[in-house]
Amino acid sequence: MTSHKLTFETLSRQRPLILAGLIATGIVAAVQYKRMSIARNERAQRNEGGYYVSVDRSGGGI
Fold first, then answer.
1. Going by C-beta distance under 8 Å and a sequence separation of 6 or more, which residues neighbour residue 54?
2. Which of 17, 29, 44, 53 is 20 to 30 A from 2 (CA-CA)?
3. Has this prediction a pTM greater than 0.70?
4. Domain range for residue 38?
5. Is residue 12 part of a domain?
6. Tally of structural domains, the chain
7. What is the pLDDT of residue 5?
8. Is 61 inside a domain boundary?
9. Tens-level pLDDT at each residue, the chain (62 residues)
10. What is the DSSP code string of the chain?
């Protein structure tokens, strides 16, 4: 049987894969955070008063 030790040599060979995974995870987390932030702001503005119109329905910005 071969032993599977986590050594520097093993990590250095896997570095591109590890970096790609970390970058992909960071991108997914950033997109999710932004999506949740937009939804939270939409709910807060909708609950403020009766004059709120979403940008999607208003025809655009200034």
1. 42
2. 17
3. no
4. 21-47
5. no
6. 1
7. 73
8. no
9. 556 677 777 777 888 898 999 999 999 999 999 999 988 888 887 777 666 666 665 555 55
10. -------HHHHHHHHHHHHHHHHHHHHHHHHHHHHHHHHHHHHHHHHH-TT---HHHHT---
> Which residue is it, tokens 């979403």?
54
CB 52 within 8 A of CB 44: no
**Is residue 52 within 8 Å of residue 45, measured between CB atoms?**
yes
d(CA 16, CA 21): 9
Total number of residues shown for the chain: 62
d(CA 24, CA 29): 9
The tokens describing 7, both together, are 């050594």
Is residue 57 in some structural domain?
no
